[in-house]
Amino acid sequence: MTASPDHSRLLARLKLRHLRLMDALAQTQSLRRSADMLAISQPAATKMLQDLEEVLGVQLFTRTAQSIRINPLGEFVARYAHRILQETLRFGEDLQELDHGGAGTLTVGAIMAAHTWIIPAGIDQLKKRRPLLTVKLIESSSDRLLEDLRKNEYDMVIGRFSQDIHQVEFDFAPLTEEALCIFVRKGHPAQNATTLASLVELPWLLQPQPTPTRTLLGKAFADAGLRLPTNVVETASIYATLNLVRHADMVAVLPRPVVEAQGDAVSILPIRLGLTLSPFGVITRKGTPAAPATTELRDILIALAASA
Question: Which intervals hold domain HTH lysR-type (predicted)?
Fold first, then answer.
């Protein structure tokens, strides 16, 4: 397809330095601080922004005597700039690695539940096929992972959707569901409790609203005619939850595979919650061609989930 005259002009005049300035301005909302980040003078940054707005034919910031504030068009351009800069950095890293005999880099973000078996098994298979491929693995919550996937900082994410907009932005291949369980440290006075009512007055570790786990637990208490516990510590960190449970007389709820992976350090209570989180799966950017290693790992994970 041949670019239109306007698009040809854009391709000829839009430079990486323009994108770097937009990325810096979106972070700082300040021409002075952005100029410092780019190691240029403030007048040079002002001229560069004027040039960019002329190239694009739109105003990107609202200006006052004392400051500038990014407008919706500017936010759109800044998101694009960040994605392109991230892709350019990764291009440079992959090129250098290939030049030194490597096979590129695959960056994967995953929720902790995926680390219990499917991610280790999947990466093991992938590395046997591609021993020179560098795999970067980052663990976080689905919300944070998808925000960074939107910024092009991952090739794929193993997680779940938490907002309706995610279905528009990303492709999703389901892997497996997760049943929730209540657990305490080994030897906890309530380790043989059989009802939610016996746990209401105990200290709890809860994930913050509106996480799926917190929502489902609230429903379980409501269905039992109970209020949620009020003696609580809130954290979105599974790592912090596990450590606090091990070292304190606190009650928590997490996906069963995560808890079972802790072995004898914890006890799962014999309370049938009947609660299952929506499936987690492989998430990629919609409309963006996937690299061969990304497609290969996705197919490996789907096959592993199907055979489990």
Answer: 14-71
